[in-house]
Amino acid sequence: ATDIPLLQVQGVTAGYGAAPVLHGIDLTIPAGTITAVLGANGAGKTTLLRALSGLVPPTSGRIMLAGEEIGGTPVERLVRRGMAHVPEGRGVVTELTVEENLRLGGLWRRDRADAKRALDEVYQLFEPLARRRRANGHQLSGGERQMLALGRALVARPKLLLLDEPSLGLAPRVTGQIMALLRDLRDRSGLTVLLVEQNVRSALSVADTGVVLSLGRVVVTADAARLHDDEDLRHAYLGF
Ligand code: ATP
């Protein structure tokens, strides 16, 4: 049924070794929405994305993608099922060229013709990448690396994009372009995004829903515009 949320997280506990970082996270993410995941340093935002993409396996709880449990699913199967994770620090392979990095994004795709189409679309979206397709990753600026990481994820044609701090180190204008692109992908292709951001204002400007984590727990889930405009909520949960 179409009313099954794209992502359901139930009671997820996860961490690195003995002490959990996440303590019983519950989340429901409808398809075609953007959710901003906010919270102070160390709140567990990055760990949440890692738990969802299987990098930090949960010690308890359930994660369901389109109604099917995905705990323990190998990463290439998660990609095939529509999940893409753009990690903090971006994960561009600096020894490879722009084009080789983008091809990595299509590695698991069976539809080779569409993988090629998706690659061309990324070059249209990110003009600087098209100009520098033979440049090595280490020759790119921070903004270009961010575009490349995002572009590589898009070549996989994800349904669910997990995006960790895309604005980190970028000029406000570039951040604005990335936010506008996410909004566009949501509106045109129904992309679902989980967006971890320190830049609270720009995240809430593009998101439908805001989720605030504190010490590994969800402390509030609210309409993004309300979280942004309601002074009491802002003071209580976002500290500004
Ligand atoms: P930030 O914005 O600083 O990245 P965050 O909300 O994303 O913060 P996490 O990176 O998920 O928070 O970190 C949550 C907790 O987990 C922190 O206490 C951190 O020290 C710890 N942690 C993160 N990564 C590791 C790791 N690889 N090994 C051990 N502990 C870790």
Automatic annotation (TrEMBL):
UniProt xrefs under Pfam families: ABC_tran
Domain of life: Bacteria
GO MF term list: ATP binding; ATP hydrolysis activity; branched-chain amino acid transmembrane transporter activity
Span of the signal peptide: none
InterPro entries per UniProt: AAA+_ATPase, ABC_transporter-like_ATP-bd, ABC_transporter-like_CS, BCAA_Transport_ATP-bd_LivF, P-loop_NTPase
Residues annotated as domain ABC transporter: 7-240
SMART domains: AAA
UniProt entry keywords in alphabetical sequence: Amino-acid transport, ATP-binding, Nucleotide-binding, Transport
Any GO BP annotation: L-amino acid transport
Similarity remark: Belongs to the ABC transporter superfamily.
Protein name: Branched-chain amino acid transport system ATP-binding protein
Organism: Micromonospora polyrhachis
